[in-house]
Amino acid sequence: MESNAAALLLLAQKHNLMSTTSHTADTIQIRDLTFQPLFSESEVQERVAILGLALSESHKGRTPLFISILSGAFVFASDLIRQFDGDCEVGFVKLSSYQGTRSSGDVQTVMGLEKDLAGRHLIVVEDIVDTGRTLHFFLDHLQQQQPASITTVAFLRKPEAAQFDVPVEHVGFDIDDKFVVGYGLDYDGLGRNIPGVYQLLEK
Ligand code: IMP
Ligand code: MG
User: Fold this and answer.
1) Which domains are seen in the chain, by residue range?
2) What pTM did the predictor assign?
3) Is 74 helix (H, G, I), strand (E, B) or coil?
4) How many whole angstroms from 200 Cα to the centroid of ligand 1?
5) Ligand 1 contact via 164 beta carbon (within 6 Å)
6) 116 tagged catalytic
7) Which ligand is closest to the CA of 166, given by its number?
8) What is the pLDDT of residues 104-136, one digit of tens each?
């Protein structure tokens, strides 16, 4: 047992030295940027459980198809579907519109859905609604395939950044218009594995 604990400690120390993401008591550093805590892991999990409950109620007996927008929403989607009480299917779509901390303004489908969506109850799962461009584009695309219903769930939303009027039935948290990482959201590829949410510290 003891040598096991020592080995784990060594591994942890080695990991810290090798990681480009360093953690101090309450801020984290990712590449050139410093972030401060916004929502803890337990606050996130509590909110996701409530969203799952709401969807279980509204989609009782419907076998919805959850469509997770990759890459950012995969963490949220994986927790959300496990809070869904009932039969459901899961699909993924890859869209991209973001480079660094600014939207490139150009949304494209990179990897589509193979499933027939006609007559299906769809639950679109997005990590964050910023300008709303990504969802606006994607919801339009889905409507054309004549699903029975579309319900949109976003883990985060930045109301001040809205440029497109998109219907989002369920929102985890409305936040200030500041860049965030964690819980699937990245800064130049890093930070997706952080269990809580961190906000850019502006100096
Ligand atoms: P929108 O199309 O402007 O609404 O941007 C939505 C997409 O931009 C999200 O799916 C994220 O991938 C990305 N994004 C927007 N804001 C942030 C942020 O604060 N951190 C990380 N990614 C973000
Ligand atoms: Mg995204």
Assistant:
1) 40-200 (3.40.50.2020)
2) 0.87
3) helix
4) 14
5) no
6) no
7) 1
8) 555 565 567 878 999 999 999 999 999 998 899
